[in-house]
Queue: 2 jobs
Job 1
Amino acid sequence: MHNINMQHTKQLISAFLVSINYYYHRENTLYLRACILAVFTHFALAVCFILMDIGMLGLLNLLNIAPWLMAIRLIQHSRYRSAILTMAFGVYAFVVYSHGYLGAGFGIEMVLWPLSFLVTINARISVRNAIYFGALCLLTFIYLYVFTFSNMSVLSDYRLYIFTLIVALSGAPLIIGMMSMKHTFIRQKAKLEKLAHFDSLTDLFNRHYFYKFLEDRKQEIKMDRSQFCLALVDIDKFKEINDRHGHDIGDIVLKFIAIFLKEKLTHNQVACRWGGEEFLIYLPQNDIHQARTQLNELREGLANATLIQGYPLSVTASFGLICFEASECIDNAVKRADLLLYKAKESGRNRVEI
Amino acid sequence: MLKFSEIKKVSVSPPTRMPRDRYPEYFMLMISSILGIMLNLFLAILFYFVDVMTLSIVSILSIVLWLTCQYYNYSGKQRLAIFVASFELVSHTIIAVLVLGTGYGFQLFLWASVCMISVNPQIKRNEAITFCGFCLLVFVGLHVLLPKQTSVQPFGQYQQLVFIFIVLVAAMSLMTALVVIKSIFIKQRRKLEKLANFDALTGLHNRRFFNTFLDIQKTIAKREKSTFCVALGDIDHFKSINDTYGHDIGDEVLIEVSKRLNLKLRIDDGICRWGGEEFIVFLPFVNLKQGVPLVNKMRAALSNETFTVHNIRVTMSFGVAESDGHEKVNDVIKRADQLLYLAKEAGRNTVMSHR
């Protein structure tokens, strides 16, 4: 049992490390793919242009592979910031020379829009650098769109196709980049909420969040003039379990009770880990006797449950159940429940006191 | 099993109040509505004076749409608000380009709407892809099918100036939005790292961080062929402090204990809150002989003076174990735990380093 538990902890740690580094891993593969795609695109373009007898443009496209190869090298050395800037200038250079050579009308200058947005949203580029690069892109765009004219006749029959291709090829990375940003954003938010609201050992709500939860419920019953029940649960002789069987078995007991509570409580009853071995349960029903029968069932179920297969260990718990009204403050109510709990402990444990 | 989504359903706050975690989105939408209203007001007046009545009326309708957007935003329906806003952007763009031609750059607002829709967390993936594909298609269609200039030439020689103005508005508003989103993202990531690595109550590192930290330190010790000590400390009779004074005083005691321990650390030592009232101190590059006096200093720092809260006298017992990095970290901690148990047996407020 001990070994399994240790392995479990190890898995948890590695899962955590992966999740923290998740953004970086994702970033890495995304950039590498973009680089490889760009290298192939430039190569294909070079071949096309040479076949079409526009040798100069073909040569420039071949040269444009160099910054992308450099970016791949930089990514491999984890120098992402330099890699992003290299990639951005690679695209920028492509726009400038292709536009200069082919002239207006092919929509090459449109690439500058997604480019500047992608550089701006990137978390590795500082705001100042993003503004500089965005301004450069904007000014170039205005110049290219307003002050240049169409001068190429070879490709003008294909103007429609080229325009569509360019918009699609620059729009797709924009959408993919923005959506991957959104994806990490949502994941981060969920993780943040989980860390802030949940106890890491038992996966129940933690005390801090539960307090806020109870405040909200208190506002609700103030409006309805109703009441709810609160039960404070304490594991009997937990200190003894810890001392006799070791802390890891103690942890397993806590986890077991958390899972047990989650299974036995109905969907609108919520449990939290209040302190070391204390749990607080929120029961929305009005009737304290009904709550008491339910908790008694819970208590009996817990006393009869086998915690660990083939390990002679059983736990019992004592309950202090109170009825909460809106006029009371939460600290006071918990104190009241604590007193009842104390009474339950005094009168022989494994019981529900109201 | 109680799932997170179900719990969220239970704890949803009343609709009159904005949920706290939606503030950034609410704020962004509000700013863009205000910008949209201002821009459209300006355009309505401008087109009224240059006698393009169609566009003036469209701008006024747009103001109504932006107000609707802000209304939905205010009442917590962000998704609907975003759809209204993007509908306004796309339809306004199409009408403006139909009337004036592509030369004024109104179609460039489509890039902005593509960006906003694909980055918004409220919009699902398929919806975003469909909408963005539609926008790009419209963009290409407008460029290809419509001429650069139509018969309506309200601005004459100032056409280029209007174009530059439109480009600046479209790009700069979007870039500001992206910068704000980015800063929220970075702030969130810092918070996440802090929550994941630090204990909320005492501000010390937490168990999760320390597990990896100790693993790294172990390999360092192994490579440098040195030893390190791990001291596991437990506050004596903490349960009774909690019971007599209450949990909040217990929390304050924990904070003060961590402060006092922190003061006695050397610069490269590490400390973490291991469990409820357990702390682990990591001492690199020392053996047991050098380590025990250091831990003794910490013990003395607690027991010599009474605490500021209620003048409680708090003591702590330690178990110190030495390792050369050739065993598992968990085994070292286990040894320290056994020594701690011996220290408790021997009457507490002691440091135990060997049997």
Note: The longest strand of chain B covers residues 228-235.
Job 2
Amino acid sequence: MNFLKGKTINLLGLPSASQGLLTFNRLTLAFSGDMAVYEKDYLEDYFVKSLIPFRFSLILAMVFYGAFAFLDADTVPDLKEIFWFIRFGVVFPVLIGVFAFSYSRVFKRYMQFIISCIMFITGFGIIIMIILAATKENYSYYAGLILIFIFGYTFIRARFIYSSISGWLIVVAYEISAIWISDTPINYLINNNYFFISANVIGMFISYFLELSSRNDFYMRKLLQLEQEKVQIANNALEKRVRERTEQLTNANQNLKKEIETRKKYEVERAELETQLFQLKKMETIGTLAGGIAHDFNNILTPILGYTDMALEELPEESTLKFDIEQINSAATRGKDLVQQILTFSREVNFDKKPIQLNLIVVEVLNLLKPSLPPGIEIRQSLEQDIGTILADSTHMHQIIMNLCTNASYAMMQSGGILEVKLDVIKVDNKLAKQITNLKKGNYIRLIISDTGHGMDSKTKERIFEPFFTRKEVGSGSGLGLSVVHGIVNNYDGAITVDSTLGKGTSFTIYLPQFGTSLLNQDELNKTLKKGHEYILFVDDEQEITYMGKKMLENLGYKVTIKSDSLSALEEFKSDPMKYSLLVTDQTMPKMFGTELAARMKEIRPEMKVIIITGYIDKLSEDLLTKNGISEIIMKPIVLSDFSKVIRKVLDEN
Amino acid sequence: MAKILVIDDETSIAVMIKKMLEKAGHEVEIALNGNDGLILFNKFHPELLITDIVMPEKEGLELIFELRRKNPDLKIVAISGGGRFQYEGYLTSAKHLGANMVFQKPLDHKEFMESISDLLIAKD
């Protein structure tokens, strides 16, 4: 039955209560079921869409309602005043009042009710005209109701239920008026009802379908909106994913770039370390090779020097061979010195390490160097006093400083310049330690020797510490000096760097681990220096050392005579044996050793005191010293404070 | 006038030192390695041993150590070219092991002869 009912309704073209997903009340057309939540939205939407058409329809209603006033004058001239009062005195003010009220904020709440009231009022006005016109046997005013239905069911935007109620109220009111009040003849009544009621029913259907259509349209729009919202949500979600993914990719890209940069940096560092390692290995290999060669060379040089020494002893002075053999001996001696440098470079040297004050050695070397410097070279020194000590062999330090200063002066030989020596303490941090090979975190004494000479290009700078590498002319240097310096510094766990600009100058920086920080200040140092006023005879075959010795001793208050030849020293002593309280002599001198000189002097004056200065303590046994009456031995290079103490001690001995 | 044993694997050096010492009036025998040197030492009974350090078969340091233990009065002089690979001086080691004197090659003839002469005189 329900199935048939549904079919019957559909065949008639009537909508079912559920049009697809659109569910509504068949009578009121209000949304029901799942759609019920949208009823309020629909009413709001219907109001917004209806408001302007509604106002237009009010104006149109006033036009037509007013226009029929001419009909009143023509068809019922006796009643026109009353009819015009209804039209213009009642209906028109209502319509105008509603028009004005339509602009109020509360109009929305009462709109449908007001529309249905308008429909009824305008319809009732016509009904009164029908009643009054019937007294003049005019039964045509019912047609006005049809116009009311047309307006009420279509133009004026009344919803179906409201317009239907108003419509049937008008029908009832007409029937009452037509049947009981105006006593309309039956044939007119039937005729009028046919048209009049048909118009109402048709109007109802029109209103029904208009509202249904409007609801359907709203539903479609709602569906569309919902779909659009879904699409928007999906879009937003997609955009968000895309954004997130893009961000992820961007971050990954940046991380990748950073990683690439870090890797590149590591590659560069690795390459630098590899270069440094290669350089170190190269130097080590060269060192080992050089050490081996040096050993063999020593064995070759030994008989050459030995036999030439013996031959020179045996040959008479006037022998023509003497000069030739002296040349051989001299050349072999130079070879011996070169071998010594090679051995130093290849770490074959015994280190006599002790705490030393580097600033004192710097002063000694500069004093030695000054007389031999060409004019035009100025020496500047900036030596911090309170730098502590380093644990080193003073001979090596002497060698290093002398080597670097000599190189610096060589670089400025042509055009002069400034040789600058700086000495200070530096605290090496991790950053600096990483930059310089062999350097660790800690305190270092830093020695900088720089010149304003011709400088060197980068290729030369790279090879400057290689043994036998030299830019000097043949005969001006073996090229071993800096490799020796490098080897010595490395053995003290120090480091050496070079900085140079072609045409501007070069600077060598040496870092040596600080051993002790406590240091005598200058005043205390002065207090530790032992002084005196005695006469001292200072003998050394190297003139620079005699000058240095004289200066040192005179600074201590002594009176000094210097000789650079042992025989002339002996003659000087013989001229006035009682003059001198002390002989300070080098050991290894031509013609006569220091020990022999001492022995000869003691033959003349037994109580003569003697100090030997030497670089080769191994050669001097205690017995030898005792036999020749040597009081003390001082190792080269001479350190002032030690020197002053030893001299004073010897002079004060009985 | 003393009996001196010279041990050096370099023949030219051993012969040269022998000649130098014989010129000074000493009696000199030479050996070219540590083992031969030991055998000759027991036959020759020298007062002074002059030995190289880096030698095949028996090193000078080992020789010095052995002979010093058995012959406390023996005078020992060590000579060396500096060694190849050791960073500690051979000569210092020789002193620690009992050498009276040490010399670095190449020898300074005058200094060497004077020192030998002083060494031989010293405990006379």
Note: Confidence is low (pLDDT under 50) at residues 84-88 of chain B.
